[in-house]
Design brief:
Subcellular location: Cytoplasm
CATH superfamily of the largest domain: DNA Polymerase III, subunit A, domain 2
InterPro entries: DNA_clamp_sf (IPR046938), DNA_polIII_beta (IPR001001), DNA_polIII_beta_C (IPR022635), DNA_polIII_beta_cen (IPR022637), DNA_polIII_beta_N (IPR022634)
CATH architecture of the largest domain: Roll
CATH topology of the largest domain: DNA Polymerase III, Chain A, domain 2
Number of helices: 6
Distance between the termini: 72 Å
Structural class: alpha+beta
Organism: Oxobacter pfennigii
Helix content: 10-25%
GO molecular function: 3'-5' exonuclease activity; DNA binding; DNA-directed DNA polymerase activity
Strand content: 35-45%
Number of domains: 3
Main location: cytoplasm
């Protein structure tokens, strides 16, 4: 096998597929990238058996063939080579020579026949979504997915299409993030996508309105993004009924500037972190939110002006959960809906049907 391509395009391809390479595996070959040259195309492939990424790179194919090269080593070599064309040549024993300018590396490759094949996906049923829309939907939900494996299904994000409306939901034991978008004419489907997969897809997506294609099988999902394909297993199990979790009634409603509230909570969290609990208290009433936090090092008092209707309320939260939501809100103002000091707080944007967030309060001893 022999090929020649630009450093920039090769490095971009390597960086893309490296997202699927695992550092913890009992199969050493999975630490590598499969490089294939056939039909005037260079294809790079990586997988950890749950997530697979394949991308194509423009290059000059001098002779066809394939090899598996260590992902970390290959990436480090290409990254440090000069900005010139790179030539890769592989002999019959998979010994590989990488040449660029006055640099030449000789590294040992592996037999490509031992590399696992990615699942074959029938692409008959497609969902098409603008890249920037899906990228934002991932960013605005994934942070709420569970991080521990106690309930594996909650480490994923629900992908639900009903009546051509896509709803993405992530939740753990303390919060929920919901984002909706209209897909036009789309078939109903319900699946749970691993949070890790969506995180890596979000890094590949660009801020463009160009469509990507999404295909499902009973066990897998395929994202086709320009010359890149991302294939992942779906999570097994029943996702929590999120509709039952979101309260439909409230006693107190607040309209507040998103940045002012975020800045105040971030300042209050400086002492909340010192207290090891991230606890902040809010007193809502008289057209203001008073935010306080105490620790052994001192206390903080913040006031934020609001538009307010309903009953006064005192409530406490883990500051991190509030900050996580406020950071991904793109609107200038946000609405808070509350019922009591022990009931969930609902956060919505003005376009409330497309953005809904829920945070459980911290029950104080005095309550």
């Amino acid at each position: 096998m022999k090929l020649r391509c630009s450093k920039g395009e090769l490095l971009e391809g390597i960086s893309t597929v490296q997202k699927a390479v695992t550092g913890r595996t009992t199969l050493p070959i999975l630490e590598g990238i499969l490089i294939t040259c056939y039909n005037d195309r260079l294809t790079l492939t990586a997988t950890d058996l749950d997530l697979g990424i394949e991308t194509q790179v423009n290059c000059e194919i001098i002779s066809k063939g394939s090899v598996v090269l260590n992902s970390r080593l290959l990436g480090d070599i290409v990254r440090r080579l000069p900005d010139m064309d790179i030539e890769i040549e592989v002999d019959s024993l998979y010994n590989t020579t990488i040449s660029c300018g006055n640099s030449k590396f000789n590294i040992i490759g592996q037999n490509p026949d031992e590399y696992p094949e990615l699942p074959v996906i029938n692409e008959n049923i497609l969902y098409r979504i603008p890249q920037d829309l899906l990228k934002n939907m991932i960013r605005q939900t994934i942070f709420a997915a569970a991080q521990d494996e106690t309930r594996p299904i909650l480490t994923g994000v629900l992908f639900e299409v009903r009546n051509s409306v896509l709803t993405m939901v992530a939740l753990d034991a303390y919060r929920l993030a919901l984002r909706r978008a209209n897909l036009g004419n789309a078939d109903d489907i319900t699946a749970v996508i691993p949070g890790k997969t969506l995180g890596e897809v979000g890094k590949i997506l660009a801020q463009t309105d160009d469509d990507i294609a999404i295909t499902f099988t009973p066990n897998h999902i395929l994202f086709t993004i320009n010359n890149t394909r991302v294939i992942s297993r779906l999570l097994d199990g029943e996702f929590m009924n999120y509709r039952q979790i979101i309260p439909e009634e409230f006693k107190t409603k607040v309209k507040v500037n998103t940045k002012l509230l975020l800045d105040s909570i971030e300042r209050a969290s400086l002492l909340a972190k010192e207290g090891k609990t991230n606890l902040i208290k809010m007193e809502i009433g008289n057209d203001e939110i008073i935010i306080t936090s105490n620790s052994q090092l001192g206390n903080v008092h913040e006031q934020v002006g609001i538009e307010f209707e309903g009953s006064d309320i005192k409530i406490a939260f883990n500051s991190k959960y509030f900050i996580d939501v406020l950071k991904i809100i793109d609107t200038d103002e946000i609405y808070l809906e509350l019922s009591s000091s022990v009931s969930p707080c609902i956060l919505k944007t003005e376009d409330w049907e497309s953005h809904t967030y829920l945070i459980l309060p911290v029950r104080l001893i005095s309550q």
